[in-house]
Amino acid sequence: MSRHRSSKGPRESTRAVRALGTPSTHTPKRASLSPSPMLHHTAIFLILMLVILQTPISANPFASGEITINPDNPTGSWQSPRALYPGESVRITINVDSSGNNYELEGSPSLSTLGPGSLWSPTSNNSPSEYTYVYEAVNAGTAPTSDAIQVDATWTEQLDPPSGGGGGTPPEPDSIDGYAVGVAYTNKPVFSWNSNPKLQFADGQTIIDFSVTASANGAAIDLADYTVKGENSWTVDSNPNGNNIAGTVKSGNPSEGELKITFDGKFQDTSPDKIGFAELDLAIAKFGSGDDLKEDRQPGGGTASPPHEMDPGGLVIASFEGSESTPIRTKLTLTGSSQNPGSNGKYFLSQQSLTKAKIYDAPVDGQEITLPKEWSSSAFGNGQTLYIESEEFAATDDPEEGTLKLKYQCELNGNTESLEDEVKLNLLPVDLRVRKQGTAEAPATGLLVTKGDVLELAIGKDYFNQDKQFEELITWEFRRLKGDGSYTTWAPFGAHGKGTKFEHTTSEGGIYQLRIEADGSHVEFLRDKDAPNIAGSNGIENPKLKAGEPDFVGVVSKGSQISVRDFALAHLGSTAWAKSAPITVGSGVDPALRFAGSWKCNLFVFMVSNASGIAVPTKIWQDKVFGIPPIVNRPVPPGANDWYNPGFAIPNWTWQAASTSPEPGWVAIHQHTSDAVSGGAHLGFLDYDGTWINAGLNNVNKSIHVSDASYQPTNYRKPK
Questions:
Q1: What distance lies between CA 56 and its chain's CA centroid?
Q2: Do 423 and 286 belong to one domain?
Q3: Cβ(589)–Cβ(483) under 8 Å?
Q4: C-alpha span between 287 and 619 (Å, rounded)
Q5: Distance between CA atoms of 614 and 169, rounded to whole angstroms?
Q6: Containing structural domain, residue 268
Q7: How far is CA 217 from CA 87, 221, 682, in A?
Q8: Burial of 710 from C-beta contacts in 10 A (0-12 / 13-18 / 19+)
Q9: CATH number of residue 662's parent domain
Q10: How is 69-86 classified by DSSP, letter by letter?
Q11: Is the whole-model pTM more than 0.70?
C-alpha cells in the first residue's frame, strides 16, 4: 500500500508563526524500502512578519536573503536583521531545484499564508515556472501584525523498473519533503512631540507651533512620508525635514484636541498633550460708541499698521474738576465663547496704570464694575459690552495712558493655561481752550479778535505747549450765529484743524461756536462760569448764559467794533440808564431833557457810540409838551424804532436785515410794536458771544441773546 502524505493545517501554521526566528531542526528522512514504506514530507515556509503603520509605498529593501532547497539540502531559513518600520522593506528569494540525487520534483511547489492577512506580495521578477520565488515584505503603516507565506515541495525517488519478468510487488519510491522559512518583523517608531503654546486665539490667524521626531532603537526615522493632522476645524501646515516635522496649527473655531501623525492615511501616534484655541477678544471703540479700532495682531505674528487698538488706542474724554460738561463713555466689547477649550474656564478684566478709569454695564447710568473683575465661563457667556468713563481730573493731574486686559484661563492637560488680549486706553481731560496768538489765555470777558488775527485752539490749557496728538481721531468744527437766531451747519476747519491743538487764521467776521468731533461724538467749547449781569427786567437769568452752556469766539471786521463793544462792556451793571434815573446825555442833546422815567436803551447806544468815536448825530424832536404854542424843536438821540427802520438814515451806521450774520460791536434792534410814539423797540450792542449789552429797566445787562425767540426778528446796524 502507498504511504499517506501528511498536510500542514492550521495548527502547524500557528506553530510556525510562534516559532519565527527559530530555525527548524527537522532532518530529511528517507522512506523505508520495505513493502510498505512511509512517505515523508518536508514543509517549505516563508514567513514575513509585518507591522504596517501607513500606506504601502515603493520601498527599497534594506536587507535581502536567498534560500535554495533541493533533495540534498531540503530545508533553509532566513530572518530580517532587524524590525521593519513604516516604509521599509526586505526581500527574500527562494529557489526550488526540480531534481537532484536521483530525485525529481513531484508536481509544483504549493504556496499558502500562515498569518492573519496578506502583508506580502511577489515582486515583478517572479518566475514560478522556473520555481524561483521572490517576495518583498513592506511595512505599509498598518497596526502591528504578522503574516506568513508557506511554500511546500516534495521530491520523489526515481526507481528503475524491476528486471526480469517475475512477478511480485515493485518497491515503493522514497520521497523527501523540504521547506524554506523567511522571517521579517515590523515595529512602530517612538515619537517625541512638542507644541508651544498650548492655548492660542481662535481667530483663524494666530498659530501654535509644533514639532515631532521619531526614533527606533536609538536610530532616527525619516518622516518624509508622514503627515500631521488635527481636528477638522484646524488648519495644519507642516514641513517634513528628515527626522523632524515642524509646522503650525491655527483655527477659527474654539476647540481642543490632539495632533495625530499618519503614514499614508493610517494612524501612527497621538501627541500626549492637547492644544486648544479659544475665542477671546477685547475691542475698544476709537471714541464713544463708534466703530471698534482694528486688531493689532497680524496673521503669522507682527503688528498691524496704526491706527489700531494699541496705537493710539481708545480715547475717553475726561473733565476737569468743576466742569459742567457731561461725561462721554467709550464702548468696550469683550468676546468669548461657551465652546472655549479646557475645564474650569474663567475670564478676568483688569487695568494697568488707569487709576481714574470707571467701567459701567450701560452707556448711561448703569452699574459700576469694580476692577479686577472675574466671571465664570457660564456667567460670561459669549461676551459682555461695557462702557468706560473717567473720574474728574484736578488741574494739576496729567492725562492717563494705560491698558485694559481680558484674560481667559482654563485647565488643560492638568495645567493652568491662559490667553490675554489687551487694548490701550487714553484718559484725556478736555476743557476746550481758545486764545489769541501771543497771549496766555482768553480774557475773562470773552475772546474777541479782529479778522486776520491768529487763534490758538487746544483741548485743554496744558496742551498748548505739548506735541499734537490724535490727529486721526480729533477734528475741530465751527458754526456761525445767524441774524435770525439760527446757526450755520457745523463744518470742519480743514486739514489743519486736527488733533489736540492747532492754529487758525481768522478770515471772516462773525460770532462762532466751536467743538471737537471724535468718531461721531462731540465736545463743545463751554462757558466755565456764568456770564455777568444775565438777569433781565423780570429778574430771571437767561439760562443760555450759565456755566456749562456753549461759549463763543467773536471776530470783528473792523477795530472800531472792538472799541465800541469795550465801551459798552465797561458800563455793564451800571444803573445810570435805569428807567427811573435822570441822565444828562450830551453830544448835542438838549440839556433840558433828563429822561427820568423813560426807557433809555437808545440813549445808552447813542452815548456809547459817540464816546467810542463812532459819531451818531441827533435828530429833531418837536416838543409839544412844553410849547403849546410854540412847538420847540429839541435835538435828541435817534429812537429805538429809528434804529430798526431801514428807511431812517443814521450816519456811520449801516442797516442790516435779519438774514445777515452779525458781528460783535454791531447794534441789534428788535421792534416789539409798530407804535413809534410809545417806543415799541429795544436795542443794544452785540458782545463777543451774541448777547446784547443793553440798558434795561434797572441796569445795563446781558440778559438777551440773538437766539432768544422773544427777540426775533432782529435787524442790525453795523459801523461804517
A1: 47
A2: yes
A3: no
A4: 60
A5: 166
A6: 190-278
A7: 17, 10, 109
A8: exposed
A9: 3.90.1720.10
A10: E-SSS-EEEEE-SS-B-T
A11: no
Do residue 518 and residue 414 come from a single domain?
Answer: no
- Tracing cell 461724538 back to the chain, one arrives at 521
Nearest to 614 by CA among 666, 687, 553: 666
Is the same domain home to 682 and 657? yes
Whether 186 shows a pLDDT value over 90: the answer reads no
Pair 609, 520 in one domain: no
| 409 & 465 share domain | no
Which pairs from 617-623 meet CB under 8 Å and 24+ separation?
617/588, 617/650, 617/651, 618/587, 618/588, 618/589
**CB burial class (10 A; 0-12, 13-18, 19+) of residue 10?**
exposed
Amino acid at residue number 275:
I
Domain assignment of residue 1, yes or no: no
Query: Mean pLDDT score of the chain, rounded to an integer?
Result: 86
- 687 contacts: CB under 8 Å, gap ≥ 6: 446, 554, 565, 568, 569, 664, 693, 702
Do 480 and 448 lie in one domain? The reply is yes
Answer for the pair 387, 366: CB distance below 8 angstroms, yes or no. yes
Residue 121: per-residue pLDDT:
80
Mean pLDDT of the 51-73 span: 69
> 68 is written with which cell numbers?
535554495
- Whether the link from the prior residue into 197 is cis, omega within 30° of 0, is yes
CA atoms within 13 A on the CB side of 595: 22
| pLDDT tens by residue, 203-223 | 998 999 999 999 988 889 999
